[in-house]
Amino acid sequence: MSTAEIIARCEALYEDLDFTSARKWKEADPSRKVIAYMPVYVPREIIHAAGMLPLGIMGGGDGLEVIHGDAYYQSYICRIPRSTIELGLSKRMDFVDGMLFPSICDVIRNLSGMWKLLFPGKYVRYFDVPQNYRDDVGGNYYTNELNELREGLEHLSGRKITDDALRASIEVYNENRALVQAVYGMRSREPWKVPSSEVYLLMRAGLVLPVEEHNQMLRDYLVEAEKGQAQKRDNCRVIINGSFCEQPPLNLVKSIELAGCYIVDDDYMIVHRWLRNPVSTVGDPMQNLSLAFLHDSIATAAKYDDKEEDKGKYLLEQVRSNAAEGVIFAAPSFCDPALLERPMLADRCSEHNVPYISFKYAENSGQMQPIREQAGTFADSIKLWS
Amino acid sequence: MSAATSPEVIKEPSMVKQKEMIAGNYDRLTGTKESGEKVVSTFVPGNLNELIMCFDMVNNLPETNAIQNGMRKVSGGMIMDAEKAGHSEDVCTYVKADIGMMGRGNIAPNGKPMPAPDMLLLSYTGCFTFMKWFELLRHEYKCPTVMLQIPYQGDGKITKNMRDFVVKQLKEEVIPMFEKVSGVKFDIDRLREYLKNSAKAEDNLVWVLESAKNRPSPIDAYFGGVYYIGPMFTAFRGTTDAVEYYDLVRKEIEQRIREGKGPITPEGDMKEEKYRLVVEGPPNWTSFREFWKLFYDEGAVVVASSYTKVGGLYDQGFRHDPNDPLGTLADYCLGCYTNNNLPQRVELLEKYMNEYQADGLLINSIKSCNSFSAGQLLMMREIEKRTGKPAAFIETDLVDPRYFSHANVKNRLESYFQMVDQKRSGASLAAA
C-alpha cells in the first residue's frame, strides 16, 4: 500500500463520524465492548487487556453540524464538549459501552457529570490523575485509581483482567509508542517526506483502530514514506503547542505547512506519546503504568509542574531536539489549560530567544487566510531576521 | 446608579463586626513587614485556615482581593493590564485581576501595599484554574509553593483512596512546608482547638442559612449570604472572632423572625416577599448593589444558593471534627460544592427548591468560571423537569465590568418574574 493509499484510509476514518470501523469491530463478536475516551490521556492498556476497544473521541471537528450541542453550552465555552454531546445525542455513539473523561479541565470534568445525566446506564468514569509525583503519595493514589478503573471494566465485561493480559497489552502499546515516535522522528529529520497533515491523520487513525492494526499501518507507512522523493523546501521548523484537547481542523494543519512552516513536533493527540519510553513489562503492571505516568510522561498544561524551573523545560527540549526555529502557540478558544499556560511558556521562549506567535482556533474554524498570513509572516521573519 | 447617589447600607452590629474583622486582617496583612509575620496565599474553596493558624501565618486570599477590587470598581483596569501583558481575554478574570493588581503595587483596601507571599498553598479544590493561577503567581514571586490536590468526586462520593491521598499530602507535603517556611513546629492539639471553634461557628452559620425556610425569609441567602458566609470563607474560620460573629448574627436573625421581618437590604428592610428563589452560580461583584437591587425592587428574595457552599457544605451535615484533625480537613476539602459532580449539584439544588419552598431557580452564569458554568444549562433543564418550577438563565462575570449588562439582566429578570406569576396563576386555576 502506498503512503497515498494509507493516508486515504486514515482520512476516511477521520471523516467518519459514525465510527463505522469501531462499530464493525464490535459487531464481529457480541461479547465485545467499546470504551470511548476524551483527551488527553487514559491508560488504554487496561481497556485493551479487558478485550475492549479504546475509542478516542476528539469532538466532531468541522464535519459535524452541531444542532443539539449548542443548547447545552454558553457561547463562552469551547467547542469540543458541545460537538461531543452532539455525537452522543445524535446516536453516533450509541454502540459505545462506556466513556472516560480524563482530568484535563473543568469543562471536560463537568461533561462527565452531564454524560451521567444524559446517558443513564452507561459506564461513565471521570479519570483522575495525580498532580503529586511522589511514588508513595501521588503514586499510591494513582495505582488505586487504576485498579478502580480495572474493577469497573471487569464489572462491565464480566471477566477478570489478569496481570498477564495487562503485561501483554503494555507490550503492544510499547510497540505502538515506538512506532509513533519513529514517525515523529522521521518527520523531524525529513519533514519534506512526511507532511504534518499525513502524520496528523495517521495519529487520528490510531484513535479508532485496534492498536494492532494501527501498529501495522504505522510500519507500512514508515517503509513507504522512506521511499518518498519530495523536494526539501526552505521552510522554517516550528513546534505547535496548545492543541492537545480540541483539535484544529485539518485545513489548519495544512495551512501552517502551506505558509512555509515544517511542523517538527506538536501536541496533537498526545495520548499516543504521553508515556515517553516503554513501560516495564516485568512485575506489577498497574504499578508500572503508575510509575511511567509519574516519572516518564510528557509535560502539558493539564499537568502541574511542581518546580518553577521545570516550567517550559519540555517545550525547550522539543525546540532543541527537533532543531526548531520557533513555536506556534495554537490553542482552542476558551481553553483554560492552554491559555493560562501560554504566558509562562512564552516567557520561557523569550528568555531563550525562541521566536513565537500565538493564535486561537475552534475545531470548526473555516477561515484559514488569517492563519496562513500569520504563520507565513512568522516564517518569513524567522528566515529573514532570526 | 452611581456610587455617589447610592443610599447608605444599613448596618447591623454583625456587619460592623465583620467589617472590623476584615479591616483588621488587612491591617495585619499589610503590617507583616513590621510584625515579622509570614504570609501564605491560598484559595477560598478548601482553605485550611485552622492549619495556617497553627503556624502563626497570615492568610491572603487572591479571590477575595479580586472581589474587593471588583466591588471598588477598580478590577476592570487591572484585567485590561493583564490582557495587555499577554493573558488571554478568554480566561478567569479573578486571575487577571490578581495579576493586574500585582502590576499596580498590590494595594490593599486600606491603601497600603500587600507583602509578597512567603509561601503559596495551592489548595487545588474544585477548580482547574487554581492550579495554573498559582503557577502564574509562583512564576512572578518565585516563592516556595506546595500543592494540595483534592480529587474530584466524579462518581459523587468520597472514596477511602481519595481521603487517604489528601491526608498523606497534608502530612508529608503541606505540614512540612509550613514548618519550614514559618519555623513553627506543628502542634496537632492546637489544630484541634481551632477546629472546635470552627464547628461552633458552623452550627450557627447553618442555623442562619436555614432561617430562610421561614416566610418571610429573614435573610437573603445569596446577596446577604455573602455577608453571613464571609468569616467562614476568609481568614477567620477557627477563630474566637468567628464564633462571636456567628453568635451575634444568629441573635439578630432570631430577632428578625420574631418581628416577622424580611431580609435587610442596602435600602433597609425588604417589605414584601413576592418571589422566593434558589440561585446557582457566583454573583457579579462589579455591580453587586445594582444587581441585588434588581431583585429586592421586585420583592424577590434568594432563599438558598450554591455559591455560599463553595467554602463548605455545612448545611448538609459537615462539621470540622477535632477528634480527627487531618481527616476532617480532607473531608472538608473533598466536600466543597464545586468538588461535587453535576448530578450531586442538581440533587442539591432540587433539595433546596423543595425544602425552601422556592418559586424557581435562577442561574447566574459566569463568563469566566467554567467550574461553575459548564453544564449549567443542563442543570436548569433537570431542575425544571424534576420540580415543575420555572428556571431562568442570566449571564454576567465575576469582576470584569465589561460583562455586566444592567439592561439585559433587568429584562431577563422581569420576564422571569412574569413567568413565575403565570405559573402561579396557572396552578391556582388548576386548583380551582
Largest β-sheet summary of chain A:
4 strands, parallel
Q: At the third CATH level, what is the topology name of the largest domain in chain B?
A: Rossmann fold
CATH class of the largest domain in chain B, named Alpha Beta
Report how far apart the termini of chain A are: 41 Å
Spatial strand order of the main sheet of chain A = 2-1-3-4
What is the typical, i.e. mean, pLDDT of chain A?
97
Layout of secondary structure:
The complex is a heterodimer of chains A (386) and B (432).
Chain A: H1 3-15, H2 20-27, E1 34-37, H3 44-49, E2 53-56, H4 80-89, E3 98-102, H5 106-118, E4 123-127, H6 135-157, H7 163-189, H8 196-208, H9 211-226, E5 236-241, H10 250-258, E6 261-265, H11 285-295, H12 313-321, E7 326-332, H13 336-351, E8 356-361, H14 369-385
Parallel strand pairs in A: 1-2, 1-3, 3-4, 5-6, 5-7, 7-8
Helix pairs in contact in A: 1-8, 6-11, 7-9, 8-10, 10-14
Chain B: H1 13-30, H2 32-35, E1 39-41, H3 49-53, E2 58-60, H4 62-71, H5 75-84, H6 93-103, E3 119-124, H7 128-141, E4 145-149, H8 160-182, H9 188-210, H10 225-233, H11 240-258, E5 264-265, E6 268-269, E7 275-280, H12 288-296, E8 300-305, H13 325-335, H14 342-355, E9 360-366, H15 370-373, H16 376-387, E10 391-396, H17 406-431
Parallel strand pairs in B: 1-2, 1-3, 3-4, 7-8, 7-9, 9-10
Antiparallel strand pairs in B: 5-6
Helix pairs in contact in B: 1-11, 4-6, 5-6, 8-13, 9-10, 9-11, 12-17, 14-16
